[in-house]
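#struct-help
A.M.: can someone run this one for me? Single chain, 177 residues.
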Amino acid sequence: MSEDVQLENPQTPPSTDDPPVQMADNVEHLRAEIQEYKDKYLRCLAEQQNAARRAANAQLEAVRYANANFMKALLPALDDFERLLGTEATADVQSLRAGIRLIYSNLMKALGDFNVTVVEAVGRPFDPTIHEAMMKEPSADVPEGTVLRELQKGYRLHERTLRPARVIISGGPTRSN
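D.P.: on it. C-alpha cells below:
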C-alpha cells in the first residue's frame, strides 16, 4: 500500500506550459537556486576562515603580551634601583639600606599582586612538593623531617611551585651505640 507523495517546491512557479518547456524552466530555476546556495556557502566559509584567523591573531597577541601587567608592576622597583644608583658615593650606609629595603618591598608587593607567595619553610614538616632538602642535620630539639633552616627561599604562583625552598631538615636526635 504505497502512495506516491509529491512535494511541491514553493519557489517553483506553477506552469501551464507543455512538459518540455516546463522542464527547461525548472532546470533553469534549479540552477539559479544552486548558484544562490553556492554563493551563501562560500560567504559562510569565508566568514568562518576570517573568524578563525582573527581568533588565532588574538591568541598570539594575548600570549605575546601576557606578562605586560606583571612587567608594569616591576617598573617601580626598577625606578627605585635607578634612584639608588644615582645617589652620591658619599651616601651613608643607612640611606643605602633604606633604599634597598624599599626596592625589596616594591618587588615583594609586585609579586604579591600577581599571587606569587613565599613558601613557608622553617619549622614546617618537610614537603618535597615545595621544599628541596639540601642536607640533614641531627637535632635533639626538632623532630625528624622538620625544616631547620632555609638556604634559599621558595616561591609559589597560586598552587604551583615556581621554585622549591632549599632547606636543611632535621634528622632527629643523634643515635648513640
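A.M.: thanks! The chain has a mean pLDDT of 85.
D.P.: also worth noting: Helices lie at 19-64, 68-85, 93-113.
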